[in-house]
Specification:
Elements lengths: L14 H4 L22 E9 L5 E9 L1
Antiparallel strand pairs: 1-2
Amino acid sequence: MPSAADGTPVRPRTALLREGLDAGRPYVVNEEEVPRTGTRVTVSFNRARWRDGRVVVWLAAQRA
């Protein structure tokens, strides 16, 4: 994605959008999904207990 300031490509900072980039298969996001000012994606681990006491952990990504 080109930078709004000078048009140079902006490289992803995290592994979330870097998947496939190093192998030559970049992850594509449609232009209309990201505003010109950019967007922030947070990744966090979530943990909860099921009714029978089992612990469940998952990784969630959220667009802010």
